[in-house]
Amino acid sequence: MEAGASAPLKTRQMATATSGAGRCRLSKVGAGRRPPPARVRVAVRLRPFLDETAGASEPPCVRAIDSCSLEVANWRNYQETLKYQFDAFYGERSSQQDIYAGSVQPILRHLLEGQNASVLAYGPTGAGKTHTMLGSPEQPGVIPRALMDLLQLTREEGAEGRPWALSVTMSYLEIYQEKVLDLLDPASGDLVIREDCRGNILIPGLTQRPITSFTDFERHFLPASGNRTVGATRLNRRSSRSHAVLLVKVDQRERLAPFRQREGKLYLIDLAGSEDNRRTGNQGLRLKESGAINTSLFVLGKVVDALNQGLPRVPYRDSKLTRLLQDSLGGSAHSILIANIAPERRFYLDTVSALNFAARSREVVNRPFTNESLQLHVLPPVKLSQKELLGPSEAKRARGCEEVEPGSPEPAAAPASASQRFSPLQKLSNMDPAMLERLLSLDRMLGSQGSQGTPLLNTPKRERMVLLKTVEEKDLEIERLKMKQKELEAKVLAQEATEEEEKENSRSLLRPLSRHTVTVAKPLKKAVVMPLQLIQEQAASPHAEIHVLKKKGRKRKLKSLDASEPEEQKPEDCWELEISPELLAHGRQKILDLLNEGSTRDLRSLQRIGQKKAQLIVGWRELHGPFSQVEDLERVEGISAKQMESFLKANILGLAAGHRSGPS
Ligand code: ADP
Ligand code: MG
Prior knowledge:
The chain is of the alpha+beta class and 664 residues long. It is 41% helix and 18% strand. Helix 13 (423-429) packs across helix 15 (460-510). The longest helix has 51 residues, at 460-510. Residues 47-48, 50, 123, 125-131, 240, 273, 340 line the site of adenosine-5'-diphosphate.
């Protein structure tokens, strides 16, 4: 019954995007064969009548045929029934344990193999989705059962003496009216969904909490669920109007060579109700909510259809839900859809449409693969001579760029930073692609020799080749990320430019006519705008750490708009500020701390950093590690040197002034 259970496990060795402190750079360790397919599994669960007496007076509109099939009356012809076959059918007497053990538990083991899995509860409001996923203290559902088992599994597999060390983290979000909201940090606002170069879906800035026990899980999950309930009271049944997504990540690090790393993601999703808006009579906000829900569920249907028909374009990007599910539907996950249906006749049309959707979903084929990579930092330091790496002829040619002492001694294995350690290889990554290709083919050759019986994986040569590939893959990855970030940044800039223009327009409208002059003078090289009060205060203080230098008598050419008025030269004062180096250093340090430790909200407190830029910064930090200096911000693609300059001016001065007025 369970996807991929019979298929032999093949690994497509992939780099994994990880985040958090202590993260090491990961790399692909080789492209594998196309992974085996695993069809999306579909189970249908019929809930019992809620009013126990109702069953006697009103027969259910759904009837079980066997453990996988069911039938419903055909509304076009009451003489006939519509028959459906699924991977499992759970009748009204089925227990929470039946659903969990039959359809969910079997896919959990894939997480420990570094593969992704997802469980989606689908169906109209009131059909039992939340009951199935969450349940109650007396009848716990899929989420608590899966977490309990997963944590137990990871404890056993990651115990001392076992080959892998394991850790588990959780994130919890909801998609409400096409906004991605972090339930573990409700103040963080709408988050963006991004895709890394390997097709992994990620949400920069989304809170991740490490969990080691079920108590840990409950400690984060229960209040976060409360965040949804608060919304529910205010917005009238919001909980059933949003898609709730629990993301559990299992991270594995191999304790011995070759020090592989694996990451498996589990999505547990309680979808919003799939009822037909036309029949609910929704109005106002409820109608708007339904619109958003129906849009995303409608797009979900379109995605499923596009996958089934093998269309070249699958509209994942048309809704937040489908974008998030991109690696679960037709992607890299073992997926199970639990379609919840109700027995009452008033649900009949919603039941038929849920069953039709479920039947279509069953045709979708995923290709789960193992997210596996090498941890570079555990490899021994390698310093190679060009001759060793390139062979004598290439070494000669390459010597023009970098001179290498042929007999230079190997450096002592002293601790060195990753960048120092791999610098020779990074230079190689800039080499002619044809030469790199040669090296890669040599690597393939060595790999094939290895499979014939010579275990080369741990030899220095093999490691060297792996590192070379690593560099190449990393560069490719950076290029693709850069392009993505450029796109995003261009959008942000365009938006900012429009806002700026609007502000400028409104300002110019307010200006008195007499000041409608166009300055043709060059802009001052050093100009810092400060609140007047602060300038006066600083100028007045004899020991001020920020000195205001006033340069008098400089002329600025002013050209009148009115052509009849002659051009005149008016003296204009120019202001320049000199800040003590100590204050500057303090301001820079404060910015650096914020860049490295601040949440998106903290980052937004900086001048010129809006929500989108803050998310870009957090995303960059998650991918590349901490910023070592404020100027690293330029490396966050799209933040140009010019923007950087004005960012520093706007922020250092503010922070320095804060330092000056604060207790010292
Ligand atoms: P949904 O999340 O699909 O809107 P709920 O899970 O909230 O629906 O279920 C609606 C009601 O039905 C709840 O009171 C729930 O306890 C009850 N219910 C749902 N499924 C079952 C079931 N299998 N057995 C008993 N009660 C159920
Ligand atoms: Mg619900």
